[in-house]
Amino acid sequence: MSVGENIRRYRKSRGMTQAQLAEAVGLTEGAVRHYESGIRTVKPELLESIADTLGVSVNALKDYGVETAGDLMSLLVRLEDSFGIAPASDGSGLTLNPNAPHAPKAAMAIELWAEKRAQLEDGEIGAREYEDWKASL
């Protein structure tokens, strides 16, 4: 998703109008509309302010350019050396090579993700709480 689409998604999930977001970050409603539609590009410092107002991390608003399976594969193979991400031998998932430089931290983050998913699936947390957790990363 584009930055503008992400801003729109989180703004709506927070029950905010474009006018309310604009007022909160010191913009015009037209500027917010232009950012959301992709007519204008959000500068990094403004993106931080928007993220703070929406209660999400800047990373939740960024566009990582992963739109297709090919894009995903390109990203995963680039992460192999530093994070040790590799396909499982049966092709059913991914594994981490523990000897890769950033694998230990990646493993801890993935373990936390698995715990949150289990909480969602067990009904301990709702979909909104799970989405909010993902947006905080």
CATH structural fold name of the largest domain: 434 Repressor (Amino-terminal Domain)
Strand count, sense and barrel status of the largest sheet are: 2 strands, antiparallel
Strand arrangement, major sheet:
1-2
Structural class: mainly alpha
Specify the overall morphology: globular
- What order do the SSEs take from the amino end to the carboxyl end, as H and E? HHHHHHEEHH
**For the record, what CATH class of the largest domain applies?**
Mainly Alpha
SS field, number of helical segments:
8
- What gap, in angstroms, lies between the N and C termini? 16 Å
Which whole number gives the mean pLDDT? Answer: 95
Rg (C-alpha, Å): 18 Å
Q: Roughly what percent helix?
A: 55-70%
Number of domain modules: 2
Beta content comes to under 5%
- Low-confidence stretches are none
> What do we call the CATH homologous superfamily of the largest domain?
lambda repressor-like DNA-binding domains
The CATH architecture designation of the largest domain is Orthogonal Bundle
GO molecular function: DNA binding
Keywords: DNA-binding
Domain HTH cro/C1-type: 7-61
